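cache lookup: miss for this entity combination. No prior model stored, computing from scratch. Input as submitted by user K.M.:
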Amino acid sequence: MKYVDEFRDPEKAKFLLEEIRVLVPQIRNARTSNSPIYIMEVCGGHTHAIFRYGVETMLPDGIELIHGPGCPVCVLPMGRVDDCVALAHMPGMIFTTFGDAMRVPGSKESLLQAKANGADVRMVYSPLDALRLAKENPDRQVVFFALGFETTMPSTAFTVLRAKAEGVQNFSLFCNHITIIPTIKAILDSPDLQLDGFLGPGHVSMVIGNSSYRFIAEHYKKPLVIAGFEPLDILHGIWMVLKQIAEGRSEIENQYKRVVPDGGNTPALDAIGRVFELREFFEWRGLGSIDHSGVKIRDEYAQFDAERRFSVPALKIADPKSCQCGEVLKGVIKPWDCKVFGRDCTPETPLGALMVSSEGACSAYYQYGDIEKIHDTRAMVEEMV
Amino acid sequence: MSSVAEMVTNNGNKPRRRGKVKVPNVTLAHGGGGKAMHDLIDDIFVEVFDSEGQAPLEDQARFSLASLAALGDRLAFTTDSYVVKPLDFPGGNIGKIAICGTVNDLAVGGAIPLYLSCSVIIEEGLPVETLRAVSQTMAKTALEAGVRVVTGDTKVVERGACDKLFINTAGVGVIREGLDLGVDKARPGDVILVNGLLGDHGAAILNARGDMQLSTPIESDCASLHGLIDTLLSAVPRTRFLRDATRGGLATVLNEIAEASQVGIEVYEDRTPIRSEVKGFCEILGLDPLYLANEGKVVCVVPPEDAETALAALKSHPLGKDSAKIGEVNDHRPGRVVMQTVFGGRRIVDMLVGEQLPRIC
């Protein structure tokens, strides 16, 4: 495939890996502690690609990837899923959602189970599909389950603007959009954190640009490299982070220049600004409440806000006590260190959020990882190289 | 065909006069057991499956044991239900799959497929012409596959109780002497082959549902594989195992082999044939083509010394021209399937949990 295969070229990967193999011991030799170099990829899309292409198995010992909180499906608290299910069960309702939110467990049902139990839940690929359904079914209410970071926020905002312009009366959003910056800050403020640098999210940055990350480099002195989603992008991004660490720099760099403009996408940001405003706080599964980390619909567009239009239970449901999703998200423990990983918590019957989506770290390890063997796979790969 | 026809016993009745359906849509009356039902069965099914009027309408098909025994030493018997949505898709329809799927389930066991049953559950309101088109496709596909549909059943259910049309076919075949195929028979060193491009059917169906409104013309690979399999088994009678990679795709079949044979399997992404349209489709939707369904692809496990012969045999058949050796069986980690990615990394290929759902970003 054109413009894809070029970014999966194993020959170029070899070149980068050789450089990484030099940088890792160089950095570690200069440090007093013996701990590995920890790099967090914030975005779930990165996590998925890392596992899909086996990027982690190619890295030398002494460098660990921490799979961060950037899977919007994974960080959705159980109470919000319960609200979705309650909306979906309302008489005459068509509840629309992205596919991978279907399996997220609520306290009683997931959307997939609600569908099996009679709710009209439909999978869509874009909020515009939901708006189209509303226009095709004028006698029914259509709610779109809006979730995701700044990546999906513009398309939701444009859909609301269009719904208003077209005077659609029976369409609304259940808004669960979240923002990345306060979340990275919350992770950086966590006392048990051990991180040496970040791979920044490519798609989010395409919308917000790169200036918003400056505090990470300036205040927290951590390097961040915005990276694309092909395996070569990721390896290149890792190499750039290591290079900064080795040279004692902490800067915001952009590996994904072919997509991410420094200033972001102005029309997208304008649309977001017109439709949404920051919530005072938003609850994250595994991380707790984070100030200003979610958005809600502005009063002007209240008619498109499902939370105001319908009454939802809005209960706070605690995660199962045995789950250690929060520690995994912050990189304090590895997924397989969690007490319930692979035993009570599997992709078939997920207890914790990170087991739910293919972008969740636990699910990715469970599906692709075969953890105990990652190290000997690495050894095998090294033998082969 | 003639030998098959002779094997179904005929009590010498003269052909009956057949009924005709005179309304545009199927109604509950067509399932009621009376004249309407007889007309439907005659007009839609008997008309195409028994055009020469040889078989009387008994409640069962009857076979001569001696003629079956002449073909091999074991019977194979299988059943499958078909509920594909939409009924028509590029490259086929539900009728074609209903024949090919059951023919393939027999053929992968080393059986010569002979007889099929056809049981339909119809949602009231289905246009009679839709049903006729499906039965005609079934008859044509059966003829091409050298099998006969010899018994069947028709039910009509209320609107909403099924989705337009469900078909069940069961099949009987005879396994030739000397073949011993089994999912538990893979041994370290064995070579794994497939007969062509993977994921076409799954992508064609998803595309035909129209959610994505992509204009990519991906056609289902739906085909009867008995001829291809016969060519392979004649060339390599020591073939260890065959399975058609339907629901769950290649990944699922490989896991089934690894688990049942207690062996490891290593496959190579760069040798796994997938057409670029399907790759692109999966890129957009966040799907993995290894898990997409196929309806005309068989996964073959053969001993290493037979690998080249097997590949040549597969490639000599029109349904195998894109065949490839995609991996090997090893003794590293029993039950595990590992893929060497195009990028040079390695990943576990596990069984799919539930359905593949498109990722949001």
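stored under new cache key. Chain B touches chain A at residues 211-212, 276, 279-280, 283, 285-286, 288, 333, 336, 338-339, 341-350, 353-354, 357-361 (CB under 8 Å).
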